TrEMBL record:
SUPFAM superfamilies: Tryptophan synthase beta subunit-like PLP-dependent enzymes (SSF53686). InterPro entries: TrpB-like_PALP, TrpB-like_PALP_sf. Residues 99-367 form the Tryptophan synthase beta chain-like PALP domain. Gene3D superfamilies: 3.40.50.1100. It holds the Pfam family PALP. This is Threonine synthase and cysteate synthase ThrC.
Length: 398
């Protein structure tokens, strides 16, 4: 086990963390960054190649990584010099993330971190994160408790659900209800709340995309482009680039660009009004938005060290795409690669096509290949381990 050192971007206090409380001890509302030693790669496979820059001591058996893809026809279609960071399932090209999204990378590192901290994990999810933990929990000898609203249950899938993962379906619940119940469950002594983008294991695992790119291309891209829900992936790429620059591995800081799906575009609206403050949303965006994973109402935007600061520092941009634009972009991608994109990835591609950028662009395809997985594997919706009502006692969960 390591006790990572964090730096608060507001008060500049350095402090050590144990378990899952990452907040600044001075009480600042900030997104702290993990402090690591000199850049050094290892002989381990996958993200563990960058083990000295991850908040864990040892790797586990997971060895997969995203792929980089360059394609002339695709570049012509987009009208830009784009490299794809491909997260998804398409074995013909070596893409083997069988939960189909980049959440798999986060889950693997969060599981390792929890295991080293001797803690079980609980979380709430409406989709990709749940799928990632249902499948990958076999990697560590701990239990994971995954709380999902009943109406999202049928969209979940796993090629093989781990026995370590407990799926708890909550009747008549919203995402917020699931979050409340999951955090209430964490009053148990041996269970920690996973904490999403505030969890350094999640963010630092996604930063490995920057190191992987630098190793392959021997420089950083001019731009990084991603559709965002919480913003964790975009923040992580920026942080990874910053670490490489501080270690004099590169002198470039990529500009960070983000996309959201109309009508749920609070970050794009705030950024284009040059304000740190998000307008409150008075409807349930899950009911109206095509790319449902992009509907996080509490993203890491306003928080110090979050997206507002990063877009400012890198002269980034924020762009919207409609459902129609997204589907059209997804169709074009399919014509070239014969791979189906997740709606969020379609939004990212559509927004990139509308944005005027020069130079090398890294586009994060955050999820793909669900149709192929359905055809080629026995992935199915796992049965719940527990079905509960909102007011039920959580003591039934073992
Ligand atoms: Zn502080």
């Amino acid at each position: 086990m390591v006790n990572p050192t964090l730096l608060c971007p507001i008060c500049e206090e350095k402090y050590q963390v144990t378990e899952f409380n990452f907040n600044c001890p001075e009480g600042c509302d900030s997104l702290p960054e993990t402090q690591y030693g000199k850049y050094k790669t290892t002989e381990h496979e996958g993200i563990w190649r960058y083990l000295p820059w991850l908040p864990v001591e040892k790797p586990n058996n997971y060895q997969k990584t995203p792929l980089f893809i360059e394609n002339r026809e695709f570049k012509k279609m987009v009208g830009k010099d784009v490299v794809i960071a491909f997260h998804g399932y398409h074995p013909e090209i070596g893409a083997d993330l069988d939960t189909c999204t980049f959440k798999e990378i986060e889950a693997v590192c969060s599981l390792r971190y929890a295991a080293e901290q001797n803690s079980n994990l609980a979380m709430a999810s409406v989709g990709n994160t749940a799928n990632a933990f249902l499948r990958q929990s076999y990697l560590e000898d701990i239990n994971t408790y995954i709380f999902v609203p009943e109406k999202t249950h049928e969209d979940l899938f796993a090629v093989e659900k781990s026995d370590n993962a407990k799926l708890i379906v909550i009747k008549d619940a919203s995402y917020s209800d699931a979050q409340d119940i999951a955090s209430r469950f964490c009053q148990r002594e041996d269970v920690s709340y996973d904490g999403g983008g505030k969890n350094i294991a999640r963010r630092d695992s996604l930063s490995t995309l920057a190191y992987q790119y630098q190793e392959k291309y021997n420089e950083m891209p001019d731009h990084y482009f991603q559709p965002i829900g919480s913003g964790t992936g975009a923040i992580a790429f920026y942080t990874g680039s910053k670490r490489l620059k501080q270690n004099k591995i590169t002198d470039k800081t990529p500009r960070i660009h983000i996309a959201q799906n109309t009508p749920f575009t609070p970050i794009v609206d705030a950024w284009n009004n040059q304000t740190r403050n998000l307008e409150p949303v008075d409807y349930n965006p899950l009911d109206r938005t095509y790319a449902k994973v992009l509907t996080n109402k509490n993203p890491l935007y306003s928080i110090n060290g979050g997206l507002y600061d990063i877009l400012n520092k890198t002269k980034g941009s924020a762009t919207t795409a409609t459902k129609k634009e997204a589907k059209k972009a997804g169709q074009k991608f399919k014509e070239i690669f014969n791979i189906d994109l997740y709606p969020a990835a379609e939004v990212g591609l559509a927004a990139l096509m509308k944005t005027d950028l020069q130079g090398k662009i890294l586009l994060n395809i955050t999820g793909a290949g669900r149709q192929k997985l359905r055809q080629e594997t026995n992935a199915e919706t796992p049965e719940p381990d527990y079905i509960i009502e909102k007011g039920d006692s959580l003591n039934v969960i073992k």
